[in-house]
From TrEMBL:
It is a multi-pass membrane protein. InterPro entries: TRPM, TRPM-like, TRPM_SLOG. The keyword Transmembrane helix applies. Pfam families: LSDAT_euk (PF18139), TRPM2 (PF25508). Residues 217-344, 385-509 form the TRPM-like domain. Residues 2-158 form the TRPM SLOG domain. It comes from Goodea atripinnis. The chain crosses the membrane at residues 632-651, 699-717, 729-749. This is Transient receptor potential cation channel subfamily M member 7.
Length: 763
């Protein structure tokens, strides 16, 4: 009566208080639903309302992502006489409701557990055991013999549905966790399909129960049910379930499509943050309800990584295929095959990947190389002829999604799968670092920025650990790891990323230093007085043939340019085989040939030897002039010559018309301007504004731009009469200052002067 009314507050007096009305509430519960049917001293009055409430709850979804309803389960802890009838009602329903009994909790729970064990083999108890059990019922519930016999009958009827009853002994060492045992009881007691059972286990986040009771050998699965489970696991951030599905044969190349990847990006609590990043990347505001696309996410990735990075999602062939896919979807939407057409649509990324190549290959003999190339070409054509997936690097795409969704544990798990662990760790480090910067710029919570910074440090340390582990196990393989060009990350090389990561982590690797030296010298094998040998060879080209070059085995770990690979170094190693020759010819030569055949063979061998020797000289010349160190010294010598000519032009009297020396200076600067223009136009970004932004981000490019403009202004004034000629000469004098300052960039390469020049520049 005290609680009747709306928003009524009354004090609760526990049993120990003298003012208590003998009403006991369990202190371990957080909420109570009190029911009053008007009776007094009669238990079980709440059963009707409980049934209605349970049916209503069963109509709800167990999770917003899942279509599975809330399962019903009766948990018996202690309990009075009325609980026996309740258990019987539950197990006799159609479909039955599973019952979970806590053995050892006392009263009805212990009686049900005892009878469940005693009737496991024989449904009837022995006479003496039955008599003791009836006495136990009377003692537990405080009832007479007739009521005890009635309760025994109800308990026996419950045992007729013993498959719906689970006994849980919390004191047993072999017993599983309580929540896992309850879930197993629900799965065993319901007639749900395997996909529905998997949804329940996914909602409970119990991959161990799913592995034991659901993903069993021989179970039939509907088409697409496991793919939907994988999608739900990713959205719900169930790392253990993603691992479980992968271990049980889930093929990521078939799972991940454009539709599913876009659904992943448009789900989760971080969608608003991604929209802010898209607005910053596109420099525009997004309308309400805007759905993020893969092209938008490609812009975000480029925006966060910065530099000249190009995402796969923003390339022309992907955009074209994506537009065609959307066009087909709009035409097929009325027929109800919207998603099927999108899943069948494949983007021609395979054609894009044809120009990628491995820059470091293990040394193999000629026969092994030929057989490997043949098998590789066959495998490549087979892959291109089949149905290509829209996202060929599935784990890379999922890894980037996990990072952008701020799901660190999922990102760490996906980082362990697939290839290019070093590259992905550094990409994750860079993305988190940029996201932390964006959070601070947007005046968001500092805790979020610190969390991103911690995630970035974790991935950076992983990258360093991978490099350390590789170097400790095999130095040559570690060098190959650094020089392997990453096809999945669009022109980012492991070397560039690894050096950047090691620089930030203040880690110095002798492997990296050795590799940089090999990259610098290229095919040349020089240790002492290398610059003198190079300068002498540049001045006297025949001296090139006297230099020492690296063998093919030594070059296998040094990255080579595309032109070098196409040049065909194999031809220099093996002479051409004349047409019509075969193994029988060699056998005949061993047995002996007529005189004219021997003469032809000798002449052919002489021609082949001369041809191979000439080709070897050409190869050496090509290797010498394409080595980075040779290019540097050739540029340095020509630049010093340009400075001497420019200085001479300024020091001597300026005539009405430019002299030959001045025309050479004009030609050099104009060719430099053309080269700088080519650099800008051939850079990776698509838009000219982005190209210029990247190019002007370097100090020396700004200096070159000012020097070229100032020289062209001086040249235009110099071609006129006085006083413009004098102004042009003055512009020349000012302009040469920039060109002399440019010498500092060349001196920065020197191992002694370089560090000091770098410090002076930064100061």
């Amino acid at each position: 009566m005290d609680l009747i009314g709306r928003d009524v507050f009354r004090p609760y007096q526990p049993l120990g208080n003298p003012l208590s009305k003998r009403a006991c509430l369990n202190g371990f519960h957080s909420h109570f639903l009190l029911v009053d049917d008007g009776t007094l001293g009669k238990p079980g009055g709440q059963q009707g309302l409980r049934r209605k409430l349970e049916k209503h709850i069963q109509l709800l979804k167990i999770h917003p992502r899942l279509n599975q309803g809330v399962p019903a389960l009766c948990v018996v802890v202690e309990g009075g006489p009325a609980i026996v009838s309740t258990v019987l009602d539950y197990v006799s329903n159609v479909p039955p409701v599973p019952v979970f009994v806590f053995e050892g909790s006392g009263k009805a729970a212990d009686l049900i557990a005892f009878l469940h064990k005693q009737t496991a083999n024989d449904r009837q108890l022995d006479a003496d055991i039955k008599e003791d059990f009836l006495g136990r019922i009377g003692d537990v519930f405080g009832v007479e013999g007739t009521e005890a016999a009635h309760l025994y009958t109800l308990l026996q009827q419950c045992m007729d549905h013993r498959h719906s009853i689970t006994i849980f002994d919390s004191e047993s060492d072999e017993q599983m966790a309580t929540d896992a045992a309850i879930l197993s009881s629900v799965l065993k007691g319901t007639k749900a399909s395997p996909s529905e059972q998997l949804s329940m286990a996914l909602a409970w986040d119990r991959a161990d129960v799913a592995q034991k009771d659901i993903l069993m050998y021989g179970r039939h699965w509907q088409v697409g049910s496991l793919e939907q489970a994988m999608l739900d696991s990713l959205v719900m951030d169930r790392v253990s379930f993603v691992k479980l599905l992968i271990d049980n044969g889930m093929t990521m190349s078939r799972f991940l499509t454009v539709d599913r990847l876009e659904e992943l990006y448009n789900s989760g609590q971080t969608r608003r943050f991604l929209q802010h990043l898209v607005e910053d990347a596109k420099q525009t505001s997004l309308p309400i309800g805007y759905r993020l696309s893969l092209i938008d996410m490609g812009l975000v990735i480029e925006y966060l990584i910065g530099g000249a990075y190009r995402s796969t999602y923003t390339r022309k062939n992907f955009r074209a295929a994506y537009s065609r896919m959307l066009g087909k979807d709009s035409r097929c939407d009325s027929s109800g095959s919207f998603s099927k057409q999108r899943q069948k649509m494949s983007l021609n990324n395979g054609q894009q990947d044809l120009h990628f190549f491995r820059t470091a290959q293990p040394y193999k003999s000629k026969d092994q190389t030929v057989s490997t190339r043949t098998s590789h070409q066959v495998g490549l054509s087979t892959g291109l002829g089949g149905a290509l997936q829209p996202c060929p690097f599935n784990f890379n795409d999922l890894f980037v999604w996990a990072v952008l969704q701020q799901r660190q544990q999922m990102a760490l798990f996906l980082w362990q799968h697939g290839e290019e662990a070093l590259a992905r760790a550094i990409v994750g480090c860079k993305l988190y670092r940029s996201m932390a910067f964006e959070v601070r710029q947007s005046n968001m919570d500092d805790i979020i920025a610190e969390r991103f910074k911690a995630y970035s440090i974790e991935f950076g340390q992983l990258a360093v650990d991978v490099l350390d582990c590789a170097f400790q196990q095999n130095e040559q393989m570690a060098m190959k790891l650094l020089t392997s060009e990453m096809e999945a990350w669009s022109h980012f090389t492991c070397l560039q990323l690894a050096v950047s990561s090691c620089h930030r982590a203040f880690v110095s690797h002798s492997c990296t230093q050795t590799l940089l030296t090999d990259l610098w010298t290229g095919p040349l094998n020089m240790r002492k007085n290398s610059f003198l040998k190079i300068i002498l060879s540049l001045l006297l080209p025949p001296a090139i043939l006297l230099l020492e070059f690296k063998s093919k085995a030594e070059m296998c770990h040094v990255p080579q340019s595309h032109e070098t690979m196409l040049f065909g170094l194999e031809s220099a190693k093996s002479p051409p085989v004349p047409e019509g020759s075969n193994q029988m010819d060699s056998l005949d030569a061993e047995r002996g040939l007529p005189f004219y055949n021997k003469t032809l063979c000798c002449a052919s061998e002489t021609v082949s030897t001369v041809f191979v020797q000439c080709l070897s000289w050409i190869t050496k010349l090509y290797d010498f002039y394409t080595a980075p160190v040779v290019k540097f010294w050739f540029h340095t010598m020509s630049y010093l010559g340009f400075l001497m000519l420019f200085s001479y032009v300024i020091l001597v009297k300026m005539e009405d018309q430019p002299s030959v020396k001045e025309w050479l200076v004009i030609a050099y600067i104009i060719s430099t301007a053309i080269e700088k223009t080519r650099e800008v136009l051939m850079s990776e970004p698509r838009k000219l504004r982005q190209k210029l932004k990247i190019w002007f981000s370097e100090y020396w490019n700004i200096s070159d731009f000012v020097a070229i403009l100032l020289f062209l202004a001086g040249l235009s004034m110099r071609l006129h009469g006085d006083p413009y000629r004098t102004a042009g000469r003055t512009a020349y004098c000012l302009d040469i200052i920039f060109w002399f300052i440019r010498v500092l960039d060349l001196l920065a390469v020197n191992q002694h002067a370089g560090p000091y020049i770098t410090m002076i520049t930064k100061m």
